[in-house]
Amino acid sequence: MTSWRNRLLTVYRSAQDLYAEIIDPKNINQSVNRYINRELSWLDFNDRVLALASDKNVPLLERCRFVSICSSNLDEFYQIRVAALKDQVAGDITTKTPDGRSPLDQLREITERTQSFVQRQEDVWTKELLPQLELFDVRVQSWSQLSANEKAELSKDFDQKIFPVLTPLAVDPAHPFPYISNLALNLAVVASDPNSGEQRFARLKIPKNMSRFMRVGKSNNFVLLEELIAANLSRLFQGMTIEQCFVFRVTRNADLSLDDEDAEDLLAAVEIELRRRRFGRAVRLEVPHGTAQSVIDLMCEELELGPEDVTYHRSIIEMGCISQLASLDFSSLRFQPWPPLTAGRLAAAEFNGQSIFQVIRERQLLVHHPHESFASSVETFVEQASSDPKVHSIKMTLYRTSGDSSIAKHLVRAAESGKQVAVVLEIKARFDEARNIAWAKELEYAGVHVTYGIVGLKTHSKCILVVREDSDQMRRYVHVGTGNYNSTTARMYEDIGFFTCEEAIGADATELFNYLTGYAREPDYQRLIVAPH
Questions:
Q1: pTM here?
Q2: DSSP state, 64?
Q3: 277 and 184 in one domain?
Q4: Please, how many CA atoms are within 13 Å of residue 478, restricted to the half-sphere of its CB?
Q5: Angle 99-104-109 from CA coordinates, rounded to 5°
Q6: pLDDT tens profile 301-348
Q7: CA nearest 355: which of 326, 383, 316, 393?
Q8: C-alpha span between 126 and 530 (Å, rounded)
Q9: Annotated active-site positions, please?
């Protein structure tokens, strides 16, 4: 074992010992000011994203996109991290983190900081971005600001395209409180009978497959879909008087409750959990400021939420939809696109008709994405391996891949041509489980050996091992990298990829895949560092 590896292991074990000492209850009080809370630091990260939305040096539509990203981030935070804290509180867990906070302490601070964050996010949108968009004749208008002709045109669209798919669900002794889907946008409607004066509550789900911003005519003016629906409620509640109408949204626990060790069939177990995810416990209710307290109390009672679980909005609920505006055709209001370049040595090899294997044999290759093309490096590596008759086997880890993954298609083609292909596919990659399950089934159908990693762990490594019979010897070609084997995100995220045919690294990669797919004991790697070993 090399001296640098010994030193690294020494540092790692020292860190483990230090953490064990920190979490000792006797030492908690001494460490509260030395450590950053994991959950609250995530909110700090989202503050940094919001800061980019306020940065005047960032192009306007990119600033809009950052506002949208903030909302998507916060949704995931509540679905996973806040939901986990709530589970701990429900289980009477009071253990403090190294920074001295119990689960309940963290929830209280998260609630306070989230409401403050939402207000700042809405200020950025309404006070900074909307006025700037208006300078380019892009406006988000309220229904009352539209002309009679514009209202008539949109109402016609409502009758033809929206009205047929809407389903109002009443709440009364004959109609129980309806199930509210996770992150679905809804209209709460309070209508009264003009004859009896009796008030009724109803819920109307806003269609997810329609644009949230409805274009007004051929202009770049928009009105929110929920405002168009609200303006035409008389079509849905004929003969009733609409007393109140407001948008609300519910966030649910979306983490998978999966016991790897008890699952006889991990693929089937994940599929079952994905179906159960729809019915996760509610963790947050979002409503507009000024909503009648009686209606909030009704929803909180039905959703089993407390007043601390309610987030109040003064602007758009669910700002992730602003990404629609960020996609408007104003190239001057975006970052200048950076077309990825083919790495110099790969470009020269392509020009000279050489394979990527010849390039790697000559010298190791480091590529920097997205500046250097993922398609002409990693995808080409897998593509050439799948079609090269001298390649005997391909082994690969897959964590998050795109829905139309060319890499997965190359693996299918390789297996169908008789090559030995093995894939360690992480079907528990959060929010990509369904896509990975679909690929697992397609790969298995093509004859690929598909496994799902190690029980109790997620397989997050990015590694490809290609065994090729060269003219002089059987050689192992390896790619290791950061990021994911995802052609879509590879155009946006910064990552590093490393290609080599060094014997020691090839041997380590072989040990790694034997460990992931079989029953090998914990390997003793020569060059690779593999967590949690």
A1: 0.83
A2: H
A3: yes
A4: 23
A5: 70
A6: 999 999 999 999 999 999 999 999 999 999 999 998 889 999 999 999
A7: 383
A8: 47
A9: 460
